[in-house]
Amino acid sequence: MPHSATSPPPRAPRRPVRRPTALLDTRYQVETPEGIDLLLRPAGLVSRALAFSIDLLIRGLLLLVTYVVLGLLGKFGMGLATILLFLVTWWYMVLFEVLNQGRSPGKQMLGLRVVHDDGTPVGWAASLTRNLLRFVDILPFGYTLGILSCLNHPAFKRLGDIAAGTLVVYRDTLPAQPSLPQAEPLVAPFALDLAEQRALLGFAERGASLSAERRAELAAILAEPLQVPHEQAEQRINGIARGLLGPT
Amino acid sequence: MRLTDASVAIRPRSPWEALDLGVLLARQHAGLLMASWALVSLPIFALLCLLLWDYPGWAVFAFWWLKPAYERLPLHILARALFGDTPSLKQALKALPGLLRPQLLASLTWRRFALTRSFDLPVMQLEGLSGQARSQRLVVLGQRDAGAATWLTVVGMHLEMALWLGLVSLFYLLLPAQIELDWSWQSLANAAAGEWLWLEHLSNLLYVLVLIVWEPVYVACGFTLYLNRRTALEAWDIELVFRRLRQRLGGVAYGLLLGCCLLLLQAPTPVMAAEVGNHPLPVTDPIGPEAARLLKQPLSSQAAQDSIEQLLDRPPFEHRETVTRWRFGEDEAAHAGEEPISGLQEWLQKLFKLAELWTGNASLALLFEALLWAALLGLVAVLVWRYRQWLDAFVGRIGLAQRIATPPSRQLFGLEVAPESLPADVAGTVEQLWAEQPRAALGLFYRALLSRLLHDYRLPLHGAHTESEVLRLIQDLDQSELSSFSQTLTLHWENLAYGHRLPPEDLCQTLCHDWRRLLEQGVRT
């Protein structure tokens, strides 16, 4: 049948394939030239608003104290206080961000820091830009534009951040030393990829925070591939996790 | 609920990150959430306004009080959207009456002021718990993330206020200047109910509009916080990977089984062996690799090609960006008004006033001014020092060629020419020496001449000059007598120094006389 090559054959009705779309996640990937993905975790509105409030409070107290003290010096003191007001208004954030690894006191308390879009430490130009443009974010009153921009941006940037190319991220904290339950180290009976190895280790590490029933339920999922009865699955998984961890 | 269908990345997060995920989730379904919220809340607000027209404050208070009732709809939408089953607007609105029924009274009365409202809502609405079971569940869930839920509500209240004030001031800013409204606060405050009622209702409406933006985010944040807590408590992420692992291994096992069966089935039969010769040999395709293949299969080569092309058309294989720039329009209206100038004048006047204020407290102000100037000068100095090499390299060339005042050399042609090394009366010493040591005498004379030229006439002599070059320099001084004197002296000095020919006897008198006349008196006086 030579014609069949030119006319497209009737397609078999296909099941609608679930396209593996990217899952919604708060992580932000930066790919280095070496092909390594750096994972940054941009910080959203609530934590940033709290950090800003803390900074505002600190600045307010600072100015109050200096005004009271310098007020005793009369007009000269007021002049000094005016200069201080300028410094605190425009340079407080910039100085802290550039000289303190992107952390103003408020951000430090909330575990945040400012970095460039590519994850490098924030510099003078970017920090100045993002802080000078607060005056755009404030418009028309009380950070309205900033809030809306922060809610609408996938990496939670306000306008100043967009202009300066900066990102507010959560600092990475040192993970605590995990404690695995005692078990005989075992070699997994099948090949495991990275995510699966992590899940097995996670099961062993987080066992203490799960209820016994839930642990058994989770382990039962793998009972069949491990070819053990359901009751022994948990012990077996803990053993494999020990084996993955290696001698400690 | 199938975890594998979840449209968000499930992993244990910090509470703050869980809130951020809520913002993203609300953003993804923003249209649906905001539309449904508006469709529910705006009619209620309108109704309340009509009923309580004379009491705008009470109307908005009642509207605010009813917030937990509207919050159930966004949660319903989000919970279904999370597992890929996003309802349409119509479906969502139809579901609303059913959602309102359980525990509405409790939500609107004693639980109205719960600070973890959006975090608690899923327990009631999605788990369907009530009474004792609900509170126990809340205690378990609230062990870790309740702090973040409280902060969410507190921050949310302030955000609502900030956005409302922002909208109000935007409204105020957008009033055309032509409308001569009497905006004095006094009159606003004094205005009795009546003429300003519509304004209060308008500002209430702005609050309702703000809620359309913020409330879906608030509900979504509470929901993701709840999900995060359950992910940590029940290890959802681990379950997800375990299930995938089982599926993968199960798939492999089935594949192996199938393969074995096929192998066993293919027992060689004489019929098949006989047919081998009849099979057409694979021929090379005349149309080439572009030809359509695999036409009998659901996935034909054409379809595969298409999907590959599609894939190659997207990042990271393809990088497209749209660049938008501002540029000037064709006809620029010349708006050289006078306002900026008057503004400038005003500004200057203010500046002068400020200056007058300063002069009032003269001494301190002076000190202060001095400090400021000092700071400015210091800054300039620091800058100049910082960029001194740059200035050397680029600015120095632009300026005039700098005359380098080097100190006159102390030695020329191996002769000591510093004035201190000469005797006080040169001519006298020469006369004494002439008879016995003519060489020393002429040498002293020449040395003294050079020294005078260097220090009195300031001729730029240095060690590289020859005698004749020195003479030429002297000629440039335009003093004929000095020039002829030098020529005579140099001639005889050269004759003596290099040729060992003694000068004539009478030369001494002429030279000494000339010396005294030209160099002792001519310059010194």
Automatic annotation (TrEMBL), chain A:
Keywords linked to the UniProt accession: Membrane, Transmembrane, Transmembrane helix
Membrane topology reported for the UniProt record: Multi-pass membrane protein
Keyword Transmembrane helix (UniProt): yes
Domain RDD per the UniProt entry, residue ranges: 43-164
Transmembrane segments: 49-70, 76-99
PANTHER family named in the record: SLR0254 PROTEIN
Protein name from the UniProt record: RDD family protein
Organism of derivation: Pseudomonas aestuarii
TrEMBL record, chain B:
Residue ranges occupied by any Protein-glutamine gamma-glutamyltransferase-like C-terminal domain in the UniProt entry: 446-516
Keyword Transmembrane helix: yes
Keyword entries, A-Z: Membrane, Transmembrane, Transmembrane helix
Transmembrane segments: 151-175, 205-228, 249-267, 362-385
UniProt cross-references to Pfam families, sorted A to Z: DUF4129
Name this protein carries in UniProt: DUF4129 domain-containing protein
